[in-house]
Amino acid sequence: MPRVLLTSVCRPLGEAYGDAPSVGYELLYGQVTRAQGLFSPRANHVQFGLAYVAENLEAPTTVLHYPSKKELIAELEKGYDYVGLSFVLSTFHRMKEAVTLIRQYAPDAKIVLGGYGTVLSDEELAPWSDYICREEGAVFMQRLLGERTDAPQRHPLVISRLRIFSREISRTGMVFAGLGCPNGCDFCCTSHFFKRKHIRLLDTGKQIYDVIRRYQEIEPEMSIVVLDEDFLLNRRRAMELRDCVMEGGKPLSIFCFASVKALSQYTITEIVEMGVDGVWIGYEGTRSGYAKQQGRPIEELFAELRDHGVSVLTSMIVGLPYQTPEIIEEELDGLMKLEPTLTQFLIYGPTPGTPFYEQVMSEGRLHKDLADDRETYYRNCTGFKAMVNHPSMTPAQIETAQTRCFSEDLRRLGPSIYRSVDIWLRGYEKFKDSSNPMFRLKAKRFAFEIRRAYPVFLAGKVLAKGDETRASIAALEKRVHAALGAPTLMESVASVAAVGFAAWTGLTLKLGLFQHPSITRHTFRMPDESLPAKIWRRLRGEDEAGHSVEVELRPESTVWVTVKGSLNVEGAERLAADLAEGLRRRKDRLVVDLERLAAAEKVALDDLLEQLRAYSDRVRILVPQEWALA
Ligand code: B12
Ligand code: SF4
User: Fold this and answer.
1) What's the pLDDT band for 20 if we cut at 50, 70, 90?
2) In a mutational test of the pocket of ligand 1, which residue from 4, 10, 31, 48 has the highest number of ligand atoms less than 8 Å from its CB?
3) Is it the case that residue 533 has pLDDT exceeding 80?
4) Is 32's C-beta closer than 6 angstroms to any atom of ligand 1?
5) Whole-number Å distance between alpha carbons of 317 and 388
6) What is the structure's pLDDT at 260?
7) Looking at the predicted structure, is the pLDDT value of residue 568 above 60?
8) What do you get for the CA distance between the two ends of the chain, in Å?
9) Residue of minimum CA distance from atom 3 in ligand 2
10) How many Cβ atoms sit within 10 Å of the Cβ of residue 186?
11) Could you say which ligand is closest to the alpha carbon of residue 189?
12) Segments of 426-546 assigned E as strands
């Protein structure tokens, strides 16, 4: 079987290393809370697409996220038949760097390019590749490797970790529900990349819910991000998810992308019941006229979301043809009145493959220096550089307006971490006495999140810039304490420590220390996997008693054992002994998934449960609902 390596471009990334200023590993710190300095929430994001492709192949596959050049070389020297590389336009030069290494250290490997950088022409990409993927990547690779393409796709588990003041405070499970978007906004790369089609990776609400449950097996309260461009547009699928959540009886915390048009299809009750408590809404511009902006009046929609504990990340475009510095100012005022929790401001820019790009090129409006130097143009496809001749504004005016928007957002609304607490508090107050039991549970969840945030107030009161901001943080703290009680001694101690951590965070930012992740390496179906894998993997296969076992090593040291077929007493004894042996030798968490058993003897199940009881703090057993085991 061919061996496959999938990799991102190499680190270090960033302005100091020749990239455009915003290019790095983070969404919030890089593109949203960039003016918020030490108060910015931080989370490194891996290349999710690579994890998705790897999960769905049969070939042994290694995935590297952000290797250094040295680490990439070391991996290449292990010998691979195919090397897939994911890149975007702004990392085109990085792709070339990596391909040069692949050619040198794995000269026989076939090179496959994927990701949104492949909007470039064959002519530009052919010298750097053997194959180019411009579609959903798992099926593309299956076809390329001669594997079956008709099996249902599997969903990887990918977890992002959020840090505040350099401390990890929560984990988020990523759900990949779909690609592309039918709305076709003229500037939108992903919509036009998939030819305005929506490709469902998870077809039904039940499938989405099942993936969420898998994350919750790892951490019961894990929050979820659903990556799917206009997730709520498909009402049927979203309402199926809502039904599953209601049936499950446990409130969720889901962040998703949704347009005004899509959101307008739901009542706030439906949104909250679905578990959605965070949405990314494109505000764009008041006169931008995209179809997705049609629906409920935006002021009414935002106010309702806010009052029900739903945080909003909203994005505004700077540099639309009708805008002048005064109009941008007016639009910014309007946006600030909506009190978004997080805000992104991007410059209207042309990406190859979009209608806006076609228009700009046909009218010769790309700045001459960029038109003459395509490499510099691609490098700056980030939303932070004015690249197109504007009817009334100079590039400097557009870029200054963007910077001002970010700083005004911070000055007027304060750091986003406090805005989040404010929204949770509103949600808590709204739902704590609700007649809907699910909402009362949701209030408890908000209370839990707020309580976890108790230690952040002191740092805000001491270190935030501006008297007004510090005063509003103090006022929020008072409201929180009035609603949920004064801090405990431990929380007070944690608050003092948080000031230290916040100051340390400020210092690391100033000195540029610890700003790069280390490599993340995952292997899938590799024969030479590490020892822990071997211990568990020997459980795999058919048992003579009639059941079969599949083993997966999932993130967060979780081993997932699926048992299929029929389980009798003898087989259960052998299985239990093997599982207990693994648990004894390893510290991993174990999920024993019996949901796909066709038949089982009751005594066999009882034995299995009994044998694993000693490890109950690390073991979860999933059984079909109708069995109703404890
Ligand atoms: C998560 C994300 C990030 C993360 C992670 C980086 C990443 N590229 O995955 C972070 C926050 C770091 C990030 C940063 C940036 N991003 Co970004 N990001 C996204 C986002 C929101 C989701 C991508 C995703 O993971 N989707 C889920 C997975 C499952 O789907 P997928 O990526 O499409 O992958 C599938 C296929 O495309 C394909 N595929 C992908 N790679 C490969 C590789 C191979 C070998 C194969 C065979 C197939 C394949 O197979 C996958 C499964 O079907 C997209 C917008 C979007 N909604 O898609 C923007 C997007 C990719 N980002 C974009 C941009 C501009 C950036 C930044 C330049 C922003 C900036 N101002 O700095 C930086 C670049 C930094 C970097 N390191 O690359 C643009 C790219 C436009 C372009 N043509 O270049 C997008 C499309 C947003 C947009 N609408 O403009 N980003
Ligand atoms: S709604 Fe969002 S994802 Fe869809 S086309 Fe418009 S900008 Fe792109």
Assistant:
1) very high
2) 48
3) no
4) no
5) 14
6) 97
7) yes
8) 43
9) 229
10) 16
11) 1
12) 520-524, 541-542
Helix (H), strand (E) at residue 14: none
Give how far Cα 325 sits from Cα of 109, 170, 282, 384, 453, Å: 52, 39, 20, 17, 38
The burial of 307, by beta-carbon neighbours within 10 Å (0-12 exposed, 13-18 middle, 19 or more buried), is given as: middle
Do 30 and 22 touch, CB atoms closer than 8 A?
Answer: yes
**223 near 172, Cβ under 8 Å?**
yes
Give the Å distance between the CA of 567 and the centre of ligand 2. Answer: 49
How far does residue 282's CA lie from ligand 2's centre (Å)? 8
Spacing, Cα 616 to ligand 2 middle (Å): 46
What structural domains and CATH numbers belong to the chain?
4-151 (3.40.50.2300), 155-309 (no CATH), 427-511 (no CATH), 530-627 (3.30.750.24)
Rounded Cα distance between 467 and 487, Å, is 24
DSSP state of 31: I
Percent of the chain past pLDDT 90, that is, above it, reads: 86
Q: Coil, strand or helix: which one is 197?
A: coil
Sort 413 into a burial class: Cβ within 10 Å, 0-12 / 13-18 / 19+.
buried
Q: Count CA within 13 A, CB hemisphere, residue 15.
A: 6
The pTM of the whole model exceeds 0.90: yes
Structural element, H or E, at residue 327: helix 325-337
Mutate to test the pocket of ligand 2, among 195, 230, 344, 357 (most ligand atoms within 8 A of CB): 230
Query: What is the C-alpha to C-alpha distance for residues 379 and 166, in angstroms, rounded to an integer?
Result: 29
- Secondary structure element (H or E) that encloses residue 231, with its range: none
The structure tokens listed for 376 are 């510099």
CA dihedral 240, 241, 244, 250 (to 10 degrees): -150
The tokens for 600 are 């089982």
Taking the centre of ligand 1 as the mean of its atom positions, its distance from the CA of residue 253, in whole angstroms, is 23
Nearest alpha carbon to residue 93 among 353, 475, 462, 380: 380
Query: Among candidates 84, 29, 568, 123, which has minimal Cα distance to 342?
Result: 29
CB of 260 within 6 A of ligand 1: the answer is no
- Residue 189 alpha carbon, nearest atom of ligand 2: 8
624-630 long-range contacts, CB within 8 A, separation 24+:
624/594, 624/595, 624/597, 629/605
Amino acid sitting at position 448: F
Dihedral (CA of 333, 334, 340, 342) sign:
negative
Q: What is the pLDDT of residue 552?
A: 76
Whether the CB of 84 sits within 6 Å of ligand 1: yes
Smallest CA-to-CA distance from 120 within 375, 328, 348, 330 is with 375
Give which of 47, 46, 20 is closest to 34, Cα–Cα: 20
Give the distance (Å) from ligand 1 centre to CA of residue 22. 14
Tens-digit pLDDT profile for residues 218-247 = 888 999 999 999 999 999 999 999 999 999
Widest CA span in the chain: 80
Structure tokens at 575: 């299985």
- The pairing of strands 223-227 and 167-176 is parallel
